[in-house]
Amino acid sequence: MSNNWSFDTRLLHNEHKTDGSTGAVSVPVQHASTFHQASFDEFGEFDYSRSGNPTRQALEETIAALEGGVRGFAFASGMAAISTAFLLLSKGDHVLVTREVYGGTFRMVTEVLNRFGIEHSFVDMTDLNEVALHIQPNTKVIYMETPSNPTLGITDIRGVVKLARANGCLTFLDNTFMTPALQRPLDLGVDIVLHSATKFLGGHSDVLSGLAAVKDPDLAQELYKLQNSFGAVLGVQDCWLILRGLKTLQVRLERSSQTAKQLAEYFNGHPAVKNVYYPGLSSHPGASIHKSQSLGDGAVLSFELENEDAVRKVVRQLKLPVFAVSLGAVESILSYPAKMSHASMPKEEREKRGITDGLLRLSAGVEAAEDLIKDFDQALEAVSSSFTV
Ligand SMILES: *Cc1c(COP(=O)(O)O)cnc(C)c1O
Asked: Which residues pair with 51 in a beta bridge?
């Protein structure tokens, strides 16, 4: 019914717009862990909240609809979603992972899955030839992240899906940076889309959550079994916070993306900045592929200063951005990947990925763009004096 409305409208006007029993314009938070069975012979839809809960179901149906899937899953964190999806693999299987992968996913693959006999290789997924070259007879999953974290590398989603299908592998894609507002991987043939809903979907730095959405009903059933078996489900209060955050996803992301683009252009012209990574800059090597598979450039960018000392000086001078791990919130968040998101990655692995000691990642919030530029301008003064322009 509601599927004819545009994405923006469907964020608000969907099957969970009002509560069927009371008309409440907010999904009820159903705290029950268990459900009374009125009939001895025939049990109701819900029996125990790990297996299913009405509030969580509302969120799961919402993410499934927004991503264009048949079924959604809500987990206690992004890593819980990602790790549960990896449980589809068995001993002896191989997973091909994008080289620029989220630090926590890197750790899961290299320090946990390996102990269960699941092999991995990392490849530069901006290069399809590299992907093709590294698919093995036992490769079961190709794991993408695009734009990647934190250097915003672009993977050709359709190209990887084609290779995966030709080789009988599944594809997973971490869509945290784009959200379904800007990129719908299931429509491009991806099998499982994963999210840290802690970021843009929640949007307010107040909840940890992970989501997954799947298009194929059989695969959905397998993932459901794993969600119920592993049990890392999202609590109902947190489900409600994500549902509330989702209502403003489009407006937040539009505003933040505009600001990110302005900041990227500003950094690009600044003498103290060595490199700027943002898919919305025409100089970005993946700009045209990104345009072909997404609806926007997003709110995250990274930029590189001379070294750690320059980073320290600039961070000390800045007044507006929160200096913190995480991204995707209403307040701008500045992160230092070398010591935050990628601290679990050895230095040489980091530097291979461009994550140098001078790299900062910025997630633009909804502040006035001119205030953010003003703030960065005064902070970059602290390191500009040592440059001869
Ligand atoms: C934050 C993040 C994760 C992990 O999510 P958590 O909610 O922190 O567990 C995974 N992928 C990306 C791209 C992220 O930014």
From this structure: none
